[in-house]
């Protein structure tokens, strides 16, 4: 029978309220081990972040496994063990070499198979993916509002957020100032600064300091389609349901003036990869430029280059042509991709995991439900004792509070288990869809915009150094890419056996 070391961790800077305290983790693991008849040899705890390698107690756990003092580790969730690829890799290496035979987590299902290890390597970094995904979910909530035509953010100038209806209402006074500003600007020959000063004179200022509104904000106000009933959010348009006080005609005239002012400085060219990377040498933004080469025979050719803006400090970086950037991004995205022929396999694995995950959370919920009933009984008994005057009032109060605390904790656990049960698989599903799409985009021609979007899906913090692009890959994609892009090729039997246990696959799916 395997012996397990229990590892509990919570760093002091971990603000996440969902993470249990070390004491609570110990209690949970004890309970879990008892239920599953697991032998825990010792508890090792640590109050350090797992984002960087170099935790002493974690190293001790690995050393003990290495020495054969135990064959398994039990922890609340994979993210307690590792949140960086170095430590995650160490755990997986011990599994590969057979020193570590099992991992157990009350909140995560793991099986020591190639597929299980793959899922685990993703879970080690899931926290980051989860955080990325959370902000995506917030955006999704906003999208619901937007579809109803409601503005999910701070009201533009001339409007006020109505705290009661949560709608955006016309500000009876400032709307007149905004309208006048539009009219003045439409007449032409007015700078953004003049408009800002005009607005300032009539009570429109920066809330933070009371100074006139900044020029770029005035520019944004004058070209904000909100004033003609269109909501633009995260680069998508929605039809607004708010009242408008600027006519479409006036807005059109204003746009003509705005363009007039901006035209000399902007080429109006929409560069696909601008804003994607920063300079690897100095950290300044990378900007795009267009050069037109004219030939003697009257023809011309357009070249697009990306270069460091060099606005921070002196920098020696040179231009990088757009097609070079494109090829590199295709490689980055392609390596993070899954060949479409993998889809049925993943479908199968996820379906299997779904069942296991469901069964897992169901037993967990059942156990919690029983605990809940038990406490209710205790509470009743306590009350009876108190009413029968067998229990002292002081004892009654204290005991009652204790039981109430326990009851609350269990309710929290129930909420967590019923919530987190499926969220993991949902994330997995989203990841697989993106990875399948990445493959297609990496092969497509002249789809620079899609490529740029996918590049941001699989990575962030791109830096350009000596014409070489380097991203921070987001975790699940990093796991795919670490295989050297093997998954972006069609599955063959060698790749499949690496990813999955053979008995799970029907022969018909091979080849
Ligand atoms: Zn630079």
Task: Write up this protein.
- The strands form 5 sheets. A 4-stranded parallel beta sheet has the order 2-1-3-4, with helices on both faces. A 3-stranded mixed beta sheet has the order 9-13-14. The protein has a 3-stranded antiparallel beta sheet with strand order 10-11-12.
- It has 511 residues and is α/β, with parallel strands linked by helices.
- The protein folds into 3 domains: 3-130, Rossmann fold, CATH 3.40.50; 149-262, Hect, E3 ligase catalytic domain fold (Alpha-Beta Complex); 340-509, no CATH class.
- Helix 7 packs antiparallel against helix 8 (192-201) and helix 12 runs antiparallel to helix 13 (393-443).
- 50% of the residues lie in helices and 14% in strands.
- Bound molecules: zinc ion.
Structural class: alpha/beta
The total tally of domains equals 3
Mean pLDDT: 82
Bound molecules: zinc ion
| Secondary structure tally: strands | 14
What's the quick description here?
Helices cover 50% and strands 14% of the residues. With 511 residues, the chain is α/β, with parallel strands linked by helices.
Explain the layout of strands and helices.
Layout: E1 3-9, H1 22-35, E2 39-46, H2 56-67, E3 72-75, H3 78-81, H4 85-96, E4 102-104, H5 114-124, H6 126-147, E5 159-161, E6 168-170, H7 174-186, H8 192-201, H9 215-222, E7 230-233, E8 236-239, H10 248-262, E9 277-279, E10 286-294, E11 300-308, E12 320-321, H11 322-335, H12 343-387, H13 393-443, H14 448-458, E13 459-465, E14 468-473, H15 475-482, H16 493-499
Parallel strand pairs: 1-2, 1-3, 3-4, 9-13
Antiparallel strand pairs: 5-6, 7-8, 10-11, 11-12, 13-14
Helix pairs in contact: 4-5, 5-15, 7-8, 7-10, 8-9, 11-13, 11-14, 12-13, 13-14
The chain binds zinc ion (ZN).
The site of zinc ion has 8 residues, from loops.
């Amino acid at each position: 029978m395997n012996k397990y070391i229990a590892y509990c961790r919570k760093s002091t800077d971990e603000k996440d309220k969902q993470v249990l305290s070390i004491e609570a983790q110990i209690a949970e693991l004890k309970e879990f081990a008892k239920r599953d008849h697991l032998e825990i040899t010792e508890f090792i705890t640590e109050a350090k972040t797992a984002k960087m390698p170099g935790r002493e107690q974690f190293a001790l756990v690995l050393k003990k496994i290495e020495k054969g003092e135990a064959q398994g580790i039990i922890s609340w969730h994979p993210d307690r063990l590792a949140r960086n690829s170095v430590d995650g890799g160490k755990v997986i290496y011990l599994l590969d070499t057979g020193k570590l035979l099992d991992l157990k987590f009350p909140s995560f299902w793991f099986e020591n198979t190639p597929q299980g290890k793959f899922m685990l390597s993703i879970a080690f970094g899931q926290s980051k993916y989860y955080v990325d995904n959370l902000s995506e979910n917030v955006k999704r909530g906003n999208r619901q509002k937007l579809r109803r035509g409601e503005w999910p953010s701070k009201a533009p100038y001339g409007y006020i957020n109505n705290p009661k209806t949560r709608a955006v209402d016309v500000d009876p006074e400032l709307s007149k100032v905004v309208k006048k500003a539009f009219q003045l600007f439409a007449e032409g020959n007015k700078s953004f600064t003049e408009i800002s000063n005009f607005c300032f004179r009539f009570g429109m200022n920066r809330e933070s300091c009371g100074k006139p509104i900044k020029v770029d904000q005035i520019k944004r106000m004058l070209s904000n389609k909100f004033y003609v009933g269109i909501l633009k959010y995260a680069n998508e348009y929605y039809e607004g349901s708010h009242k408008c006080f600027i006519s479409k005609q006036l807005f059109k005239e204003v746009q003509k003036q705005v363009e007039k002012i901006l035209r000399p400085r902007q080429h109006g060219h929409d560069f696909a990869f601008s804003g994607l990377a920063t300079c690897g040498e100095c950290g300044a933004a990378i900007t795009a430029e267009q050069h037109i080469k004219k030939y003697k025979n009257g023809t011309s050719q357009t070249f697009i280059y990306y270069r460091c803006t060099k606005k921070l400090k002196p920098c020696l970086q040179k231009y990088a042509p757009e097609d070079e950037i494109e090829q590199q991004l295709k490689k980055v995205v392609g390596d993070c991709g899954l060949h479409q022929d993998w889809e049925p396999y993943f479908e199968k694995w996820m379906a299997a995991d779904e069942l296991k995950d469901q069964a897992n959370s169901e037993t967990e919920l059942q156990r919690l439900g029983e605990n809940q009933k038990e406490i209710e009984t205790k509470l009743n008994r306590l009350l009876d004792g108190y009413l029968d005057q067998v229990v002292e009032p002081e004892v009654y109060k204290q005991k009652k509070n204790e039981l109430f605390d326990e009851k609350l904790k269990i309710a929290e656990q129930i909420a967590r288990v019923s919530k987190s049960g499926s969220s993991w698989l949902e994330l997995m599903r989203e990841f697989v869809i993106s990875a399948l799409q990445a493959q297609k985009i990496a092969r497509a021609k002249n789809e620079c915009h899609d490529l740029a979007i996918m590049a941001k899906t699989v990575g962030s913090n791109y830096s350009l150094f000596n014409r070489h692009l380097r991203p921070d890959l987001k975790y699940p994609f990093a796991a795919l890419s670490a295989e050297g892009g093997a998954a972006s090729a069609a599955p063959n039997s060698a790749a499949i056996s690496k990813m999955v246990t053979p008995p799970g696959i029907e022969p018909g799916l091979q080849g």
